[in-house]
Design brief:
heterodimer, A: mainly alpha, two-stranded antiparallel sheet, 6 helices, 2 strands, B: mainly alpha, 5 helices, about 70% helix, elongated
Chain lengths: ~190, ~110
Amino acid sequence: MEITARALWTLVHGMGFGALYLLACSGALVELYRFTSSSPSPESSAGQQRFLKIYLLSMVVLAWAAVLTGAYVVYPWYRAVPPSGTKDLAMFPQRLLMAGPTTIGWHSLGMEWKEHVAWFVPISITMVAFVFIKYGRDLKNHRQLRIAVLGFAAASFVCAGIAGFCGAMINKYAPVQGGHTIQLSHGEEK
Amino acid sequence: MSKSNASPNSPVLTNGSGSAAILAAGIGSFVLAVFACASDKSVAVRNTFVFYKPTGALSGVTTTAIVVWLLAWGILEGRWRNKTVAAGRIVAVAFALLGLSLLLTFPPVVDLF
């Protein structure tokens, strides 16, 4: 069992940072709503507020890590230009997608959308984390701020979902390949 | 961090700082979408935004938008930090900017220009 370095980076970007962010989103939305709209109960301690702050900060790190590895590590491999006369486009995912009438949409719509919409995620969640850390339970008394925090958190979820879906489909039709091969395990003959 | 004379159910903090962060997020998103749209439509703009060649114009579009976002945030925070502002209107503008940003980054909409 082996994986190429580029495929591993794509995995870290998509599954490591992106998918983990998406998983964290639903929990953040529920907790933000619960924490900022309900009356403080005896069990909603300062410890729980601290936990949510750390949770949101972790999401900020995941969101920035996802867009930065996407834009500066994986994307250059995706958009690499083949030397003229290249017949096998397997190492040039963008050109591979653009070469087929049934796959060109995954670049012209999927990647063109994903590469920009993904950046709304870190911007939104950074704001959400800042406002929650600053106001905490006092958000309950600021209805408009609370609505904005929940709205931007939901928008970040949608944007991350769009980016994740497009990324997964693009990688299915034109996977980023190449780099040195990493041996994960040695298969046994049967 | 400014505090007012609060009763148990009234806000402890003014809403200025939160409003500044929210509006700045809307501005940052919108600027990113406008730059992305412009670089898609104009070769000159696209070339200007190539800050890092392997990533192409995306590097300049996003870097510049992030700088504008942080600058806007800093300026608004400086002006509103200790104030109570019209948060309802500010949040509405921020949502409108975010909505426009989502539209402007959707390729079929970009193709209309």
